[in-house]
Amino acid sequence: MAGLNGNIPESILMDFAYIFGWDIDFIFDIKGGERFEVLYETGYVNGEKIDNGSILYAKFVGRNNQFKAYRFSNRDGKITYFDQYGNSLKKAFLRAPLSFNYISSHFNPNRKHPILNTIRAHTGVDYAAARGTPVRSTGDGVIMSIGVRGGYGNTIEIRHGGEIKTLYAHLDKFNTDLKVGSKIKQGDLIGYVGDSGLATAPHLHYEFMVGKLKTDPVKVKLPSTEPVPNDKINEFNNLMSALDKTVRIMK
Q1: Of 85, 82, 88, 1, nearest to 39 (Cα)?
Q2: CA-to-CA distance for 102 and 29, rounded, in angstroms?
Q3: N or C: which end of the chain has fewer CB within 10 A?
């Protein structure tokens, strides 16, 4: 095993970003001065390193927040990462539905519309991206509507659990396998970035609604998936204590 403060392999850094990706936007949230720790497996044969294994423990310390992750098998044997309280780091929703260049327009109830030149609430986030960039569902759900919707152009609306709905607008085209009533999973391809409807350039307009309330997709607190099962809490706590001890020794 190796626990390093520098010279971290790229594959481990990518895994680190994935583990905390539901809570940290590594494009916009990193301001400088952040610290992190990672403990990961390394495979050796006859004293020669052959590969990097899984991250066992990770910690991120930002300016105003701190996150920890512990690798643990849940009830069905699936490997998941949990925080120190036993909550899954994997959220029921992705923070963003695509790989984007930048946010071209934030959630703003008093925004001046760039085409209509009137004050009109901007009830979502606009992600600037190249035409044809894949757009994915941020959570499990069912297609409520798919088609042209006025100024939104080609639009998909998805119903999730707990009165949550998401909307994806200005698409160039849809995944042709989808129709109203189709069941989808988090990360499934639903369409491609475009500029259909009232749009000045290719981008994705994304909305996150809880009941009738439209929230800021960038700031809304995302619900977690299942925590450590009650019958495995003691096992998890023992593992967490052992990993914490290892990290202290290696510092």
Answers
A1: 1
A2: 13
A3: C
Domain coordinates in residue numbering, the chain: 2-90+224-250, 102-215
* Contact (CB, 8 A) for 72 and 66: no
Helix (H, G, I), strand (E, B) or coil at 39: strand
Q: Does residue 17 contact residue 2 with C-beta atoms inside 8 Å?
A: no
DSSP category for residue 229: -
Q: What is the distance between the alpha carbons of residues 120 and 104, in angstroms, rounded to a whole number?
A: 16
CATH class of 2-90+224-250: alpha beta
CA angle 232, 236, 241 (to 5 degrees): 155
Residue-wise pLDDT tens digits, 144-196: 999 999 999 999 999 998 899 999 999 999 999 999 999 999 999 999 999 99
The top-level CATH class assigned to 102-215 is mainly beta
